[in-house]
Amino acid sequence: MGVGLSRVTGLVRTAVLAAVIGTSALADGYNLANSTPNVIYDLMLGGVLAATLIPVIVERMEADDQRSIDAIATWVITALVGVTALGVILSPLIIRAYTIFKSDQAAADQQIKIAVPLLIMFMPQVLLYGLDTLFTALLNAKRRFAAPAFAPVLNNVVVICMLLLFQQMVGSGVLKGPDPINAVLNDKTALFLLGLGTTAGIVALVVVLLPAMKAAHIRIRPNFDRHNEAVRSVVKLSGWMVGYVVANQVSLWLMKALVNGTGEGRASGFEYAWQFFQLPYGLVAVAVMTAFMPELSSLASRGDRKGYRSRLGQGYRLAMVVIIPVTVAYVCLASPAIRLFLSQLLGTVITSAFGPESIAITSSMLTWLALALPFFVTFLFMMRGFYARRDTRTPFIISLWQNAVQIVLSLALAAVMGFQGALLGFVIAYAFGAVMAMGRLARQAGGMGANVGRAIGRYLVAAAFMAPMTWGIAQVIGSGALWHTFLQVVVAGLAGGGVYVTVLWLLGSDDLELLGQLRGRGGAPTPVAASVGEEIGTAT
Predict the structure, then answer these.
(1) Which residues contact 166 (CB under 8 A, 6 or more apart)?
(2) 402 CB-near residues (< 8 Å, 6+ apart)
(3) Is-contact 119 97, C-beta < 8 A?
(4) What is the distance, to the nearest Å, from the Cα of residue 262 to the centroid of all Cα atoms in its chain?
(5) Does 222 score more than 90 pLDDT?
(6) Cβ(202)–Cβ(38) under 8 Å?
(7) Which residue has the higher pLDDT, 284 or 455?
(8) In the predicted model, what is the mean pLDDT of the chain?
(9) Average pLDDT in the 186-208 region?
């Protein structure tokens, strides 16, 4: 429930942001600056910590080794402080890198003018994201999932309140006007509200975890012992992860820079579409991966290959039985969904800056991103499988290939197709990476378990029947005023989903039973019947 509520409030936050600043030059500057701390954090530490902390912390907790946990936390926090300081210093260069494909130098200079001061105020988020990852890993290792799942809700509420106050302070007419950037730069109070108010949301994200840590009897004391065995283990595991994360972030930067270079509003349209793209990933895939990761790490540590591949396959099926129909719904309903959620709903309450051009840009980007969703989830789920086995070398090699494909294709296709080409490169690259990752992990584990190949086949057959039903009903109803668009999205979505479930039932599938297994306080599903948990030799 916590993950769901956090994602729903995150969607509301995106809708409020779109309504307040739309896809203007101000929006491009804000969105590029606001996404950068995530990029810097992931580039320097984020992916490394996510991949290495849980396996090592689970092992140290099982050994009741508090000194090692303290040493890991101490050095993680020290590194985060250093990276944050470096990010503040390099803020002008970081923002300028996003504008290298812009042909209009005046527009690039305007974007830099607003994005740099905002980024300086956003950069402490790097430290805060790191603390969130560390605290979440400690809580997850003790099988405490509720607080980390609910924490983003408070972050979203804080930012929503800030944005509404910002609109009232500056004025909706100014924000929709020809020069919103200079209007904000000339009003220091508004500028600081926009910058520090956004960061305040991340402060809330971290602070709300402290009571949960206290309840779980988690204490962190300074320990600068760099020779500690657990610290050395994290560093050793992180070696390959550094290369993996760098490759991923270079390709992500390139995609954002290419999109940003195609015109005003493109950077913001991408960020809004990306939030919709991340919604099912966060609601379903992240929830499943978070729940399964501690147990997979434990099974791998004990050398239980049979249990490991059975649980891996079960978790993957649990994610994909939902992700595949969501992909169909996104492709068929991108335009009315964007119109409804980012324009019409809030447009009844506040003056919205998200007009027809913004809708067209964002819905087009969401359609392309949606095509990558099953591959994106598959790729990242398989990466978690490697991490649970404390293998970071293989993900690095696979990621190099995946990112090389993405960089080459995005550059080539963007030159011909614009931002659509950059996103098509993203789709193809993740399809390639997903197949490669699944094949390699299946060879390592002796199979994927849980009849994965046959299950995916059933999902695809059901999706093939779902697509024409969803698209056809949406076209018959058509778009119009708020309630007309609402009916279009809801009726077409429910009809398509009903067809998907019906086809799975007619195929005699037991896949839907998996959805009832993710219960309790966020724990992984309990083992189900042999027909579901039984393994197969390989997955292709």
Answers:
(1) 20, 190, 193, 194, 197
(2) 379, 429, 430, 432, 433, 436
(3) no
(4) 24
(5) no
(6) no
(7) 455
(8) 84
(9) 93
C-alpha 4/C-alpha 17 separation (Å) is 20
Amino acid in position 286 = V
Rounded (10°) CA dihedral 35, 37, 39, 44:
180
pLDDT tens profile 260-277: 988 888 999 999 999 899
Residues 6+ apart with CB under 8 A from 105: none
Helix residue ranges, H only, 90-124: 91-97, 105-122
Buried b (16+ CB within 10 A) or exposed e, 407-419: bebbeebbeeebb
Per-residue confidence (pLDDT) for residue 195, from 0 to 100: 94
Q: How many CB atoms lie within 10 A of CB 272?
A: 27
CA–CA separation, 242 and 208 (whole Å): 30
Residue with tokens 């390709």: 251
76: closest CA among 56, 58, 62? Answer: 56
Residue carrying the six token digits 């001061």:
117
Looking at residue 234, what is its pLDDT? 73
Is the pLDDT at 534 greater than 80, yes or no? Answer: no
Task: Give the per-residue pLDDT at 194.
Answer: 94
- For residue 447, pLDDT beyond 90: no
Amino acid in the structure at residue 66: Q
Residue 384 confidence class, pLDDT cut points 50, 70, 90: confident
| Gap between the Cα atoms of 93 and 97, Å rounded | 6
- CA nearest neighbour of 37 among 123, 141, 146, 103: 123
Closest CA to 111 of 302, 256, 224: 256
Two structure tokens written together for 62: 């099982």
150 Cα distance to chain centroid: 16
pLDDT score, position 50: 59
- Mean pLDDT along residues 307-329: 88
Residue 23 vs residues 17, 165, 474: alpha-carbon distances, Å: 10, 19, 26
Encoding tokens for residue 128? 């805060």
Q: What is the sign, positive or negative, of the torsion defined by CA atoms of 85, 88, 93, 99? A: positive
CA–CA dist 137, 216 (Å, integer): 13
How remote is the C-alpha of 168 from its chain's centroid? 30
Half-sphere CA count of 422, side-chain side, radius 13 A: 23
The average pLDDT across 294-307 equals: 80
- The alpha carbon of residue 537 and the mean position of all alpha carbons in its chain are separated, in whole angstroms, by 32
What is the token pair recorded at 28? 């491009």
* Cβ atoms of residues 512 and 324 within 8 Å: no
Return the biggest CA–CA distance within the chain: 67
Q: Where are the alpha helices (DSSP H) in 261-304?
A: 266-280, 287-302
Indicate if the pLDDT at residue 232 is higher than 90: no
Query: What's the mean pLDDT in 320-334?
Result: 94
